[in-house]
Every structure is written in C-alpha cells, then in structure tokens.
Design brief:
This protein has 5 helices and no strands. The protein has 175 residues and is an all-alpha fold. It has a single domain, classed as Ferritin, CATH 1.20.1260.
Length: 175
C-alpha cells in the first residue's frame, strides 16, 4: 500500500508540464528584460542550473547505479537552462557571473547565495541528500528572485522553483 503524497511519475510529469508551459515565456522575442538587475538575476539563474547539472553529472559519475533515477531530473535542469537562455537579449551571453558556478550558484540581488558543496559525500544516500538540499536551496532562491524581476521572468522562475521543489521530494523518495 502506498503512502499518501504524490508519486514519482506525477512529480516528473508535473515538472515537465511546468517547463513546457513556460516555453513561450522563455523566448528571446519576449519583452526585453526590465533592467540590469533582472539581467544579473537571469544570468545567475542560468549559472545555477548549469552548476546543478554538473553536480548531477558528478553524482552519476561516482555512483553509476543512480544514472537511471537521476537522468530525468538532469533532463529537467537542461530544459530549465535552455528556457532561461531563451530569455537573454540577442547577443548577450549567460556569463559572466559575479561568482563562478559551483561556489555561490544562484546568487542574486536581494537573495542569499546558494552554496554548492565542493565534494560529494562518500555514499550514494548522502549524495542524494546533498542533491536534495541543493534543489531545496535553489527553489528558495527562486522565490527570493521573484520580487526583483518582471512578470514574464517571474512566471518562469516560479515554475522552475516549483519543479526544483518537486525534485526535492523525488530525491527523498530515492533514499
């Protein structure tokens, strides 16, 4: 008998639906970014997604048996990064960031930095916990970023934050 709460399939499907629903919001032909602060937040969000993708790749490299479970989450983060990149004005790159990915990824004006621990823990279970913790911190950072951006970017960031919160639940189920 299953415990109460969402299933993994529902979480993954919901996450994909959120990202797909945000597709039009993530286009370069969307309204221009509101200001330099919004561009900085967008760049940091892209760098945070890329740093998290690298963390998942590190985890699956160290613990290959987690690949099948983590691959859908990594795919979501690739979609997140692509949706964010589409919001960049033409000719603008996602870098530079004030801090390199992997150290204080996800940092934005008015928001606390999201620390990415340097080494992964020495067990797959602890690595999953660390990934879940990072997902939770990133979802929290997304909420803090919402007050500093335009409505279209806020909708995208909120959707990505919801997906990251779903990943936290999913990772906890894997333990």
């Amino acid at each position: 008998m299953r415990e109460h709460g969402p299933t993994r399939r529902a979480l993954l499907g919901g996450s994909l639906s959120l990202v797909a629903a945000c597709g039009p919001l993530g286009r370069a032909d969307s309204p221009d970014l509101g200001n330099d602060r919004e561009l900085a937040i967008l760049r940091r969000a892209i760098n945070a997604e890329e740093a998290l993708i690298a963390r998942y790749k590190d985890a699956t490299g160290r613990y290959p048996h987690l690949e099948a479970r983590l691959a859908p989450i990594v795919a979501h983060h690739r979609q997140h990064a692509a949706a964010l990149r589409r919001r960049l004005p033409p000719g603008v790159t996602p870098t530079p960031s004030e801090s390199p990915p992997g150290r204080f990824a996800g940092r934005s004006p008015g928001a606390s930095p999201v620390r990415v621990p340097a080494p992964l823990p020495d067990s797959p279970e602890l690595a999953l916990e660390a990934l879940g913790s990072h997902e939770r911190a990133l979802a929290t950072a997304r909420i803090k970023q919402l007050r500093d951006v335009s409505a279209p970017l806020a909708q995208l960031l909120a959707s990505l934050g919801a997906s990251e919160a779903g990943h936290t639940v999913l990772l906890a189920e894997y333990l």
